[in-house]
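MODEL INPUT / OUTPUT PAIR
PAIR INDEX: 1
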Amino acid sequence: MAIQNWSDEITVVELAGDPQFTDELSNLMDRLEKKPSDVVLNFSAVGFINSSNVAKLLRLRKQMGNSSRKLILCGVNTQVWGVLLVTGLDKIFDFTNDISTALATLQLANGEGDT
């Protein structure tokens, strides 16, 4: 699990289960206060999320909304997706299947793919 600057404008976070999940999101939020960027959260190693994780995701979304940056969740497994559906979070977050698709989506949205 790690926080990586994929570019000057995009940060990729490889999440894992708790307690690392909460720690990584806290570290990410601290970084974004200093230097806002778009964020891709990779959930491929996350087996489940709890209410504390959901609360942290909502705080991150609010913080990023204040800076007009984009947040994409990717690699969400069936169990985590079920929690997101039940809580209605599937309607407020953007999702892709994998990191490559998330990065391409952000690049297109930022106009980096224009020729």
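PAIR INDEX: 2
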Amino acid sequence: MKSRVFHEADVPPGALKGEKVAVLGYGIQGCAQACNLRDSGVDVLVGNRDDEYRQRAVDDGFGVFGLAEAVRRCSISILLLPDEVQPELFPRQVATGLAAGKGVVFAHGFALRYGLVAPPPEVDVLLLAPRMPGQYLRQRYLVGWGVPAFVSVEQDASGRGWTRLLGLAQALGITRCAAIEVSAAMETELDHFSEHFTYPVIFRTLEVAFEALTAAGYPAEAALMELHGSGEIGQVLLTAAQEGLFDMLDSHASPACLAGIAHHWESSPASEAELRLRIGNVLQQIQDGSFARHLLEQSAAGYPERKKWRHSRSSALARSEENLRKMLHDLRAGMN
């Protein structure tokens, strides 16, 4: 199965001519998307409740309205509100302003995948899901580049769904990199897989490794710098994205490094059978909706599981990270 990919040359001229865009939510993604759209010449306003994000949008020079009014005023609305609140807010403050011919854009397919919202049949339903946080979407735009994104037209009521979608992708800087067609359902499942399997494996492994090394007598800051504090692992993963996982190893790893990786490949962090069992369990919970129900239950209860997890984190690791950052005072500047 091969996805379609769109770049700058695939965007129809004047794709957003006559369109007015509402960015709903001025948080991590909302701020970046609104600023990129404006800098690309798009007529854009912000929809946000009366909180610190609303004031930030005002300070940044945007016209700011309540969600419902922003949707009413615009032909396209980009929904950048948390997944957990969309089922409640969508029917009351978004759908009410979606007249025939308008479009609504989701930055994550969660609410669509699990049937938590029901967009009117007479509007375009689009997916535009950047694969990086808003900070990088904005930074890369400003230097003439972009981040990749998953895109799809889930419902093309106007007949202009793809034109609108590619116009937005271009205005955000995404087609400078790549807009890859993937359904909202697949985007949701892939995104959750990273969050439920890949990230826990990486971060939990780093935490356990830090605890084991310090218990074995290694200085905390030295252990931490070797694990991830120097930024080496981030650079390795970035290079792997650019060159390919195994090509990067062959090109940049020393013979001793390659020997160590090869020696422990089958058992780290677990056997292949154990990993595949874990992957199967994670995918089942994503695909059958178990995690979606769990997320909504956690949201309604005030996220007790997340609070418990926060309290269980290694305080020694956090203190050592702070100490190491002071030692490497120019690390952040050098990586930005």
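PAIR 2 NOTE: The chain has 17 helices and nine strands.
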